[in-house]
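Researcher: Please translate sequence to structure tokens.
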Amino acid sequence: MPENEEEISAPKKYLKWEAGEFAEYPKSAGWYMIFSFIGIIIAGVLFWQKNYTGMAVIIAVIIFFFTQAKIKPKVNKYIIDPTGLTINDKHFPFTKMKLFWSVATKDGNIVYIRTTNKLSAPLALQLGTINPKPIENFLKEFVPQDEKMGEITSDKISRLFRF
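Model: Translation complete:
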């Protein structure tokens, strides 16, 4: 959801847009019922096996899923300029970026950036319906692109479960 479509597509010394921090999937009553049913079945099997610790863990996980499912994504402000990437108030200089790649899913476009921090997950820049080409072209000037990489596993799982 860019502020202005022209801002993202016009050749400038910076690109900026706004998008949710993660893809949001509406959850129907059916979604909650399916997860409840699965949780009850697994907890029941664990109870039958007298695995009370496992049962408690499954119940805690289901409660966690339900509370997390209600969280709405915050809107992030993205700016890419010759010094790096800024997400809201946090700046990531290009010197801290190893590579980037983009992925088109049925739910929108995402640009991933792997940083030099080995312990952190790649940054996921949600684009929604914004064309990723201007962003890719801008980033290519500073960071290598890996066209073989795909969607990260945690995003695939989130999309699969509509989480």
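Researcher: Any highlights?
Model: The radius of gyration is 20 Å.
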